[in-house]
Amino acid sequence: MDMCEANAYLRKGDKDELYFEMVDKVIPQAEGLLLEDIFGRRKVFNGRILELALVDHRIVLQEDPKAG
């Protein structure tokens, strides 16, 4: 992994599952968070950021409990 990007993990109970690798941008949108990787691939996540650990290159996400 390069020095700039991070991996996004989805918090499931007491475990974190890999959700999206090599995230370069996180952009708040009306429908959720737009995550974009270093190759320009995008995912929209319906939830919130629980934690940013920049030194560890980790973004921890939590799903919106109302989504389903």
Give an overview in words.
By secondary structure, the chain is mostly beta strands. It has no helices and six strands. The chain has a six-stranded mixed β-sheet, with no helix packed on it. A hairpin with a 4-residue loop joins strand 5 and strand 6. The model has no long low-confidence stretch (mean pLDDT 92).
- Helix percentage range: under 10%
Note the main sheet: 6 strands, mixed
Q: What is the C-alpha radius of gyration, as a whole number of Å?
A: 11 Å
Count up the helices: 0
Mean pLDDT: 92
SSE string, helix = H, strand = E?
A: EEEEEE
- Please tally the β strands and state the result: 6
Structural category:
mainly beta
Low-confidence segments, ≥5 residues, pLDDT <50? Answer: none
Question: Which geometry do the CA atoms define?
Answer: globular
Describe the strand arrangement of the main beta sheet, using strand numbers.
4-3-2-1-6-5
